[in-house]
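Students often ask why we bother predicting the structure of a whole assembly rather than each chain alone. The short answer is interfaces. A chain on its own may look different once its partners are present, and contacts between molecules only exist in the joint model. In this exercise we take two input lines together and write out one structure for the complete complex. Read the inputs first and try to guess which parts will touch.
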Amino acid sequence: MPETTYIAAITSALADAMRADERVFVLGEDVAEGGPYTATAGLAEEFGTGRVINTPISEAAITGVAIGAAQSGLRPVLEIMFIDFITLALDQLVNGAAKAHFMSGGQLTVPVVLRTQGGAGYRGAAQHSQSLESWLTHVPGLKVVMPSRPSDAAGLLASAIADPNPVVFIENKTLYFRTGEVAEPAVPVPIGKAVTLRAGSDVTVVALSRLVHDALAAAERLAAEDGIEVEVIDPRTLVPLDLEAIVASVERTGRLVVVHEAVEHSGFGAEIVAQVQAAAFDYLDAPIGRVGAPFAPIPLSAPLEDAYLPGEAEVAAAVRALFRGRGASS
Amino acid sequence: MWRIRLFEERVGVLARADEVYGLVHLSVGQEGVAAAVCSQLRDDDAVYSGHRAHGHAIAKGAPLDRMMAELMGRDSGLCRGLGGSMHVVDVEHGFMGATGVVGGNIPIALGSALAARLRGDDAVAVVFFGDGAVQAGHFNETVNLAALWGLPLILVCENNGFAEFTPRSAHTTVERVSDVVAPYEMESATVDGNDVTAVWDAFGRYLASARAGGGPFLLECLTHRLRGHYEGDPGKYRAALAEADWQEKDPIRRIERHGIAYGWFAEDALRVIESEAAEAVEQAVRFGRESPFPPVELIEEMVYADA
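Now the answer. The structure tokens for the assembled complex follow.
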């Protein structure tokens, strides 16, 4: 399989979907120009500006437009350039898209994909760096996916576009130019299925988005330095969550750490922790660990942002804390 | 119009008796706009509305019995009892939805107009809203986009002079809603919304133009709601209309007088329409009362569409 970047995998999945289905179109700010990270580069040239539609900076209205087009039988893929600006689209998303199928007794469907991206590390400061997925996972009617690898980005985007429900597709800007193997055309990845990226017998680490890569790096270090074998699971989809895969792993390892870049307080990790302890309490040999950002906005200053962001070191420390005073095999 | 009037008056009674659930916003006195607009539309033309939506849904073709059952929270309701007064949807007749968020459906209606354009057919989208929605951001964002893209959207503002409990003058310095869209070079007009023929003529011109590729348009209909913002609101903010004034303004009485004067219909025929509407409303109430409540399992079943 060819190696490609995460962002190119997304572009390619969009183009594949638009070639396969005339109802699929893209709209958002600067999408015909390719957007700030080239996610839609080349699409306007191939499909024209009738299907790759530039919009003004009107997040509320363009989200409503996408919902209305979806209710009328089209398959819009809406880009909200930074997840930080989803605040402006939330009314349409939460009161409109998420509830239309329910409130209409099943008459309406809203097959819209809202692509957006979050994540810090680029010195973007507090309004261009956030991880706001837990706001969206709280809303019944939305599906929320958050791929960490190019193959999942392409495969989940294909599934999201085919899904009859509103799907929020959350990318991470620091992953955009990482590479990985992606089949061409992309193999659809089912929404709601986790993937185990590293097998291990001592502790399960459930990681979201960028932290998947930090968790894998931490796992290698823990194996080498501490003899702790970490199993790393990427849920890939937050709603619906593949609890079964996580619980099955915890039943084998007896320990769990949940890690994400979002603020730890009320982050999605809290939901995973609550569900796992309810389903597998008797299998747990230690309190469940959590890693997330501090309860503070993201600072600009480089040393402060570095200190703020959770990464490999924080994941390793959280795992080690579960083994303090005990051997890995206890 | 009689069907809307009598349906809503009955709903007001049923709401006070707790047979109809939720916040209920009646359009009594504003029926002329719904009738004159929706009776010119096809089923494939999308209509969206706001929280005061019963009249628009009925005028677009929603059956009274399933409407009433919906308001009563019954399984045979249009939305299986999950939506209610502020969230009525009847896709079969192109009534694509009401909303409890003031102005929330305005951009969604534009999306429907965009879909018609991308499909290449001559369907139009119409959205009803009150003057209170005009001060919201999503109205202004949508007006800009609709004008920029030249889409077949017809914005119908029912200006009843009150945003909830407050007169328009307390919310904005712009008196006429049609003036708000003027800088976008969107064609607009203000008509007497209680004059059915005036609404019919103005909307008909816009509709013909939108079908032929024109648009968007804004039609401001000056009207008067006889009831409170919702059933049971304090009502202290507005002076009661004298009975004589109301006889003069009432859109139903006006079109009846007008039609008789022009020889369009006879008094007898009008009374038959009124009594048939009354019977249809009573039949709808019976239908609602006899319908079961939806099963509890519906709560989980309806959150997502099956993939």
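Check your guess against this: The domain at 3-181 of chain A is CATH 3.40.50.970 (Rossmann fold).
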